[in-house]
Amino acid sequence: MHLEEGAAAEVAAAFIPPTLSTRALLSLERAQFLVERRGTLTVNGVAAVAGETELVLRDPQTMEVKLRYRQPVAPGEGPIPFALTVNLPPIGDSQVLVGTVTLYPAVPLTPVQAAARTEQAIALTLQPDSPPMRLLERRPEPPPRPAPTPKSVELPRFVA
User: Fold this and answer.
1) Which of 151, 122, 142, 124 is nearest to 35 (CA)?
2) Most confident range, picked from 9-13, 36-40, 83-87, 149-153
3) Separation between Cα atoms, residue 94 and residue 59, nearest integer Å
4) H/E/C letters for each residue in 14-77?
5) Which CA distances in Å does 6 have to 3, 10, 12, 13?
6) pTM of the model
7) To 5 degrees, how large is the angle CA 110–CA 26–CA 37?
């Protein structure tokens, strides 16, 4: 039994791993972050299409939105690198934040792209703020001490 060329190509295509644009329109370099409480967070990734990315951070206990930030993704073809950089606002007592990075494409998507992932979850562990550095005061050095004067010591005399 021989497969026709067209049928063989369809079977082969079914086993080729999908590209970024068919399974995920958004991919992040990492999804877990360790950040100082009032520090700066940078999320790096690639988008398969131009549009806008949105970062939303929430308190996991109350689901209250602590930060929402949107930024355009430059127009281009193929994987388009992006970086979302934000200064964290005062968060309260929470030691962890959960969130999402979502891509909102600027152009209508094909049916295959529409089924692709456009959102990725992230988690932040917040470290306490670094204590402020104190400048050490330099104390003046004490004046040099005078050298001790030798004392005369009498040694006992033994008679043989």
Assistant:
1) 124
2) 83-87
3) 7
4) HHCCCCHHHHECEEECCCEEEEECCCEEEEEEEECCCEEEEEEEECCCCCCEEEEEEEEECCCC
5) 8, 6, 10, 11
6) 0.65
7) 150
